[in-house]
Amino acid sequence: MTVQNPPAVKTSPVSRYGLLWTLARFREAGISIFILILVVAVTLRAPSFLTVDNFSDILLNISILAIVALAQTMVILSHGIDLSVSSMIGLVAMIVAFVVKQNPEMPVLLAVLLGMALGSVLGTFNGLIITFGKVPPIIATLGTLSIYRGLVFYYSQGTWINSFELPTSFKLLSKGTPLGLPNMVIIAIVVAVIVYYFLNYTRTGRDIYAVGSNPDAAQFSGIRQQRITFLVYLISGLLCGLAAVLWASRFESAQTNTALGFELQSVAASVVGGVSISGGVGTVPGVLLGALLLGIIQNSLTLIRISPFWQLAAQGLLILIAVISDKWILSRVERTKQ
Amino acid sequence: MSEHILDLKNISKSFSGVEVLHEVSFGLRPGEVHALLGENGAGKSTLVKVITGVHQPDKGEIHLNDAPVHFSDARESRRAGIAAIYQELTLFPDLDVAENIFVGRQPLTFGGRVDWRKLYAEAGKLLNSLGVKLDLKQKARTLSIAEQQMVEIARAFSINARILIMDEPTSSLTLNEVADLFRLVRRLRADGTAIIFISHRLEELFELADRVTVLRDGSYVGTRLMKDITRDDLIRMMVGRTITNLFPKQDVRAGDVVLRVEHLTRAGSFHDVNFDLRRGEILGLAGLVGAGRTNVARAIFGVEPATGGRIQVEGREVAITSPQQAIELGLAYVPEDRQLHGLIPSMPITPNISLPILHQYARIGWLQDKSERKSAYDAARQMEVRANNIWQLARELSGGNQQKVVLAKWLSTNPRILILDEPTRGIDVGTKAAVHGLMSKLAAEGMAILMISSELPEILGMSDRVIVMREGLVTGEFSRAEATQEKIISAATQNVTIGSAQ
Fold this sequence. Notes:
heterodimer; B: 6-stranded mixed β-sheet; 33% helix
C-alpha cells in the first residue's frame, strides 16, 4: 500500500481538480462546510440568527472558550491532556476577584497580570507532577482538577463575590469596546495570533508537534521532551489565568462553580477543530472554527426554541455529527488525492 | 595522539540487573567503515546508544579526539558531530519530509523565527545531492520504509557528522538503493568521516567495511581487518560455534494444490497474478521492494481484498474479505513490519501468542488463563524465544526474538498455508538458521509456505519454486533447479513489455 507508488507518480491535485479541491485539501474544510450548512439551516428556521448583533454575541460568548481551547490544543498536540483547566479558571477567578474587591483602585492591567501569574503557578504544578512525578497527564490533571476546585471552596469559604462588589473598570475589561469590538474578542484574537506564530514559526512550537507525533523519536533527535511537556502545562495555566480574569469580568462575579465542566468543552472544541487526540496533528484555525461551531450550536439551539431539557443532548449529538462528517469528508479528499 | 577519533574503553552497562554490555572496548579511525557485528541481543544497539548519549555507561570511558567526553543526551553527542541512523526508524509521522530532516534545528531568520523557505530550499538541495526524489511536503506517515530511511539518512548527512552510525540501514532497501547508499558511504569515507556500520548481511560487510568488531552476549570478542578474515571465521566469532548450514532445506515431495490464485488483481497494486501452492512446498516470491509482493499476500489474507480474480483454497473457491475469514480457512500471515502489524508491543509474550486463537481459551466468554499460559509457553519454547519469562513485554525483546514470537503466534493457529513476509529481515545468523530450520520442518510436515523475501540467498536456499514480480506483474517463474541469482535479478529488473500495471 505505502510501498507501491513512488512519489514521482503523484500529480498535483490542484491542477487536476481546480479550486474547489484545493480548498477541500485544507484540513479545516470539513468543519467549515458543516458550519455553513448549520448556519443556513438555522437561518431558515430563525432569520434573527444571521444578524450582526447575534454574531457579535456569539463571538463574545466563545472568546474565553477559544483561549482555553488553544491552551488545551497545545497540551493535546504534545500527546497530553489538561483536565484541570476549569478548576484553574475557577480558582484564579476567585482569587483575582477577591483582590480586586479589596483594592478597587487597582489598575485593571495589574489584575490581568496577577491572574496570568497565578495561572502559571498552577500550570507549573501540573507540569512538575507530570515530568518529575512521572504521572500520566490524564491522572495528574484529574487530581489537580479536584485539588484546585477544592481550594476554591477553601479560599472562599463557600461565599460568592457579586457584581456590586466589583469596580466598573474591572467589569469593562471584557465588555468595553474602545477598539470597535469588545476587548475580550480582541484579546482572544491576539492570543490566537500569538499561538499561531508560536506553533508555526518557533523551534519550540515545532518541537511540540514532534514530541506529540513520536515521543521516542524526539529523544533521539535531541529534543528535550521533558522541557516541552513542562512548558505546555505552564502555558495552559497561564492562558487559563487570563481566561479566569476575563470570566470574572464578563460575568461580574466569582462563584465556587465558575467554569465547572469547562475542561470538556475545551477538549471538544479542539477535537471538533481537527486536533488529533493522540497528538501531533492540529491547527490554530481549526481550533478557532471548533470553538465557533460550539458557540453557534449553543446559540442556535435557543433561537430555534429547542426545549432547554433537550439542549445538552442536542449539543452533544451535533458535536458527534460534526466530527463524523469531518472524518468522512477528509477520507473522501484523501481518496481523491491518491 | 592515538589514531582513533573515537575510543570506547571498558564500557559496561546494565538494565534492571541484567548486564547488557561487559567491558567492551572499541576504537574508530577517521575515514574508515567499521562494521559492528553480533547476534541479536549481543549488545550492538546498546553500544550505539551509549556512543550517542541516549544511555550512559555504568563503567568505562568514552574518548573523542583523545579527550574524555560525557554525553547526557543525544543532543550533546550530535553537537560533537556524532549522527546515528537507528534500527527503529525515528521519524515524526505527522511532520513533512523537509521538517523531519531539520527537526529540532530548523533554520531561523535573523529575527529568530523558523525560516520555512530556507528549510525547504536546503532540504531540497540535500535530497538532490543524495540523488533522492521525494515530495518535500509529504507527511512521513505516508512514506514507504525505504523512503523513510532515505529521510533518516538525509537527516544524518545534514549535520555534517564526523562520525556516522548506521544501524542496519540496508535491511529494507532494494538492490539499487543499497548500491546508492554504498556509493554515498564511500564518498563520506573518502572525506574522512568515520562510519560505524551494522548489518547482518555479511556479503555487504565484505564489500564495504575496512574493519570489523564482533560482540557476543555483551562482551568484546575481537577486531579484525575485513580483508584478513573469512566468512566462516566471522560466523564462528559471532556465535561461538560453527553453523554448518544456513539453509537446511529438506527435499520434500510436493502434494496436492492447497492454494490456487488465478488472475488475481488489485487496481493500482498488482495485475493478473497466477500461481499454485502445494502441500509441503516452499514457494519463494522474489522481487524488489515495492514490486507488489506484499500486496498480493495482503490480498490473499483479506487485509486489502483483491478487486479481481479468483482464489481457491483446497479446491474450493473462496472470497476472502477479512483476516478472520482467512484464519478460519487455515491461512496465517506473518507480516513484514513486526512492530506495526505483527506484535502488540505493550503486551507480554503470552497474550501476543494467543491473540489469534483467544476464542479457544474462552469458555462462555471467560478466558481460561491456565491453558492460555501453557500453550503460549509451549509455542515459545518450540521457537526458542529468549526472554526472562513469558510475561515479558514484547517491546523489550530483541528483533530476532520478536520475530520468533510472531512466528509462534501464527503457528499456534495450526495453519495449513503459511505466508511469510521477509521472515528473517534484520535478524542475526543464529536466529536466521533457526527460522529456516523451522520452515523446512513445517514444509516436511505438509505445510504450504509462501515466502516473500528480498534476500536472494534466502530465496535460492529455501524455495522449491520461485516466482518473481516486478511493478505488480509476475515476470518469471523458476524451479529450484533452474533458479539462479542472475535469472531472478533479470526478471525483477527487466523492462516490462507485456503491458504495465495500472
